[in-house]
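> forwarded from #structure-qc
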């Protein structure tokens, strides 16, 4: 089991357009396994390779996004080189979070339904449809592979508010890590 570090905004890698996957080999399978472990450890519904610093068009979505709680133990959906084949004209605005913006939630408008064309882990083409959270998760992760993040979809004011919260959260994390280090340094070494 390997839990990878999830890059936090504004890491510039998050603005990169990812390269298509061309080799469906053992290193790719290992990366997918590590991303699954990372997603589970972070309790995420989806994860894009961009977020862990891998320059590949690869994303994962937890089956929970499509089927809810009953799918908790089903295998994670692996989506490679995705293309949005169709989006519904109907849109839904709902709260959205991102592992690259820990503890920041914003209202984002997305198509209610989407159909994605992609390759699986063996390089075989398939299509997946998502509705509601399923559509939201797929589109959010496809965005990551194109260097787009959730705050790009909202108004200037919402973006400023989200960024302020994100900066405070990141500063709190740094302060907590410093405090932990200082406490460890004080502890008796026996
Ligand atoms: Zn995200």
């Amino acid at each position: 089991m390997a839990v990878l570090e999830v890059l936090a905004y504004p890491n510039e890698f998050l603005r990169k357009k990812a390269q298509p996957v061309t080799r469906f080999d053992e290193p790719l399978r290992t990366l997918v396994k590590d991303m699954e472990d990372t997603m589970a450890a972070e309790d995420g519904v989806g994860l894009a390779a961009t977020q862990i610093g891998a320059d590949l068009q690869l994303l994962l979505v937890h089956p929970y996004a499509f089927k809810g709680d009953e799918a908790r133990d089903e295998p994670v959906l692996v989506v490679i080189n995705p293309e949005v084949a169709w989006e519904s004209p109907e849109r839904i605005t709902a709260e959205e979070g991102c592992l690259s913006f820990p503890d920041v939630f914003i209202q984002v408008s997305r198509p209610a339904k989407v159909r994605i064309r992609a390759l699986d882990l063996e390089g075989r083409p398939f299509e997946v449809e998502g509705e509601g959270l399923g559509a939201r998760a797929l589109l959010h992760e496809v965005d990551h592979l194109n260097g787009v993040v959730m705050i790009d979809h909202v108004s200037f004011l919402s973006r400023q508010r989200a960024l302020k919260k994100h900066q405070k959260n990141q500063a709190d994390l740094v302060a907590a890590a410093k405090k932990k280090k200082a406490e460890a340094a004080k502890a008796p070494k026996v």
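QC bot note: The CA atoms of residues 68 and 133 lie 9 Å apart. The first helix runs from residue 26 to 42.
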